[in-house]
Structure formats: structure tokens, C-alpha cells
Design a protein that fits this description.
Strand order of the largest sheet: 6-7-8-11-9-10
Structural class: alpha/beta
Shape: globular
Largest sheet: 6 strands, antiparallel
CATH superfamily of the largest domain: Glycosidases
Strand content: 15-25%
Number of strands: 11
Radius of gyration: 22 Å
Number of helices: 11
Oligomer: single chain
Order of helices and strands: HEHEHEHHEHHEHHHHEEEEEE
């Protein structure tokens, strides 16, 4: 392992994203996994056993400490781990004194029930569980799960973007989510994912979220002159060219959010406070020094009323609210999100 890491580090890479980082070690006594009493034939075959002796073994952390020592010897490098585990187990991958992974991927936003109450709870639970030396991270989409616009609707995908880019920690987004790409229905003869080919029809296929990036509205979405490995069928509006220069497109929203992060240190280095659900609206604060930003996100397709400190709207997901002053009662339309700089 050390030889492989050094091979790439000597060539100047900035770090590694390591796949299935909680699975590299099996039980030291080579015990068989016990059968899963809840298994049924419509589930993936590997669910037939409980992963008692093949998942999250103690020796994994010895490997991580060794990897981290190697990376640290090269200066500023990053080690990121793909880890699907409950939060109490996940945060142990930071190590006891920063000798684990720099960022164990936090996939909660991908799998969460999309309500203000639930999202507020998972943010609070995750923040409380983080070790003092840990830097948080949030992942909105990846290659193994349905796209955010397909999971929670196209309108709520805009709110999800605001959430991702205003939470404390490093945001991770999946290509195409910034233009609102959705899952594609893959005909059986065009399936590429081995999981779906092995067990067709039980929902294993990940091809729907792995279709090519859509750069324009042409037949092959500007991705290739050849034949793409997966079909492109919904590129008419979900493409970069049609949204570039459109001030209220989802692409423009992502750009505005990224620009706000760059200009507001509180969104990068600030603390997070008062995470709560006011009805159907998720609210929290980002604070640094005298700067206090309030984020309010309507998580459902219905208007709601919340209370807010006095301040000025510095970013809104919808047209017509930027720059407005607010104080006290605030009416949020359905699928509306705002960031307020408090007085």
C-alpha cells in the first residue's frame, strides 16, 4: 500500500479518494458471516449475510493510520474515504488525534427523508458527534444513488443546493446536479452496470444516474462525437449552454452560491448555530466574529411563515428577493430559500 501511495504522491497528486474504505479487512479468525434472517429473494445476493466479519473491522484503522502517515510526510495532502456507516461509526474514521482520514464522506443528505425536521436533526446529530479535530463534510449526490432532482424534485434540488453550500464543512456535489440533470430510464439492452446485469429488475442498477454530462441540447449533448456508453434523453433544457447566462437557472444559482462562499468567510470558517425546523422551513445560522448569516430553506412545495432577525437578503433561490430588508415575520414561498445578513 505504501509503495502505491508514494508512486502517485511522487508524481504530485494532492491526495486520494479511497473506495469502500470500511471494507478492506476481513475477520482475523476467518469466521463466516451469519445469515441474514430478513433476507428475501428480491434483495441483492450479498444481503443474504450480515456483514459482521467483513465490515468495519478494528484492523481497518491500523491501515488508515499508516496511509495518513505517508500522506502527511508529503505536506498538505488529503485522504478522503467512501464510507457508508451510521454516524457514531463514521466519525471514528477521523482517528483519535487526526490520524485517520481527513474526510470520511458524510452521505446523510443522499439517504435522508427530505423534511425540515429530519434534516435539522441529522445536522445536529452529526455536528455533536464530530471529534474536536474533525472537519465536517456533506455530500449531495454520487454515482451510486439517484440524482437529487429525481430524489426530491427539480424545485427542491435548488433548495438542496443552498443547503449544501451553506452548511459548515466541505461540500461535495456530483457532476450534472448543478444543471438539474435527472435519472435516465435505461432500456434493458443498454444496461452497463454489473449489479443490474447480475440481478436485473430489483433496483440495483446505477446507470440512470451515470449518463454523460450534458453540455448542450444537441443529440449527444456536446459530450462526444462518437456513441456514448449510456443514452442521453433529457438534455433539452438540462444542459450548460441553455442555462449559461440565464440569471435564474439552477446553474446560475450554484454559481451565486459559490461566489457567496468565496466572499463570506462565515460560510467557510464560521460556526453553525440554532439549527431548527420552523414548520416546513429549515433554519440555521453561520457566525464568524460580528458576522451573522441566517439561512432559511422551505423544504416543501407550500408557503410558510417564520420569524427572522432584522437584516438584508444577500441571496435568494427565487427572483425578486435579493437585497430586500426583512424584520420579524418572514413569509417564504414554496421551494424558496434565502440567506440573510443580520444587522
Amino acid at each position: 500500500m505504501d509503495v502505491v501511495l508514494r508512486f502517485w504522491l511522487d508524481r504530485g497528486v494532492d491526495g486520494f479518494r479511497v473506495d469502500v474504505l470500511w471494507l478492506p479487512i476481513k475477520d482475523a479468525l476467518f469466521r463466516n458471516n451469519p445469515p441474514n434472517p430478513q433476507f428475501s429473494p428480491d434483495q441483492p445476493r450479498h444481503h443474504a449475510q450480515l456483514p459482521t466479519y467483513t465490515e468495519d473491522q478494528p484492523e481497518v484503522h491500523n491501515i488508515l493510520r499508516s496511509m495518513r502517515r505517508t500522506l502527511d510526510s508529503y505536506g498538505e495532502r488529503v485522504l478522503i474515504g467512501e464510507i457508508y456507516l451510521p454516524v457514531p461509526q463514521l466519525v471514528r474514521y477521523y482517528g483519535s488525534a487526526g490520524d485517520g482520514v481527513n474526510m470520511p464522506f458524510n452521505f446523510q443528505l443522499i439517504t435522508a427523508q427530505w423534511t425540515a425536521t429530519n434534516i435539522a436533526q441529522l445536522i445536529t446529530t452529526y455536528e455533536r458527534a464530530l471529534p474536536v479535530h474533525a472537519w465536517p463534510n456533506w455530500v449531495l449526490g454520487n454515482h451510486d444513488n439517484p440524482r437529487v432532482a429525481s430524489r426530491i424534485s427539480a424545485s427542491q434540488a435548488r433548495i438542496a443546493a443552498m443547503l449544501l453550500l451553506t452548511l459548515r464543512g466541505t461540500p461535495t456535489l456530483y457532476y450534472g446536479d448543478e444543471i438539474g440533470m435527472t435519472d435516465v430510464n435505461i432500456p434493458p439492452e443498454q444496461v452497463r452496470d454489473p449489479a443490474e446485469l447480475r440481478q436485473p429488475g430489483i433496483g440495483q442498477g446505477r446507470d440512470p444516474e451515470r449518463t454523460p454530462m450534458q453540455w448542450d441540447s444537441s443529440g449527444k449533448a456536446g459530450f462526444t462525437l462518437g456513441e456514448p456508453w449510456l443514452p442521453i434523453v433529457n438534455a433539452a433544457t438540462a444542459n450548460v449552454a441553455s442555462q449559461d447566462g440565464e440569471p435564474w437557472s439552477i446553474l446560475a444559482l450554484y454559481r451565486r452560491l459559490l461566489s457567496l462562499r468565496r466572499s463570506e468567510p462565515a460560510l467557510v470558517a464560521g460556526s453553525i448555530w440554532n439549527v431548527s425546523a420552523q414548520g416546513r422551513v429549515l433554519t440555521f445560522e453561520r457566525c464568524l466574529g460580528s458576522v451573522r448569516l441566517v439561512v432559511a430553506l422551505s423544504m416543501e412545495e407550500r408557503p410558510d411563515v417564520i420569524t427572522s432577525p432584522a437584516g438584508r437578503v444577500v441571496l435568494s433561490a427565487r427572483e425578486g428577493r435579493d437585497g430586500h430588508r426583512i424584520a420579524g415575520e418572514l413569509i417564504l414561498d414554496s421551494d424558496e430559500g434565502i440567506v440573510v445578513a443580520c444587522d
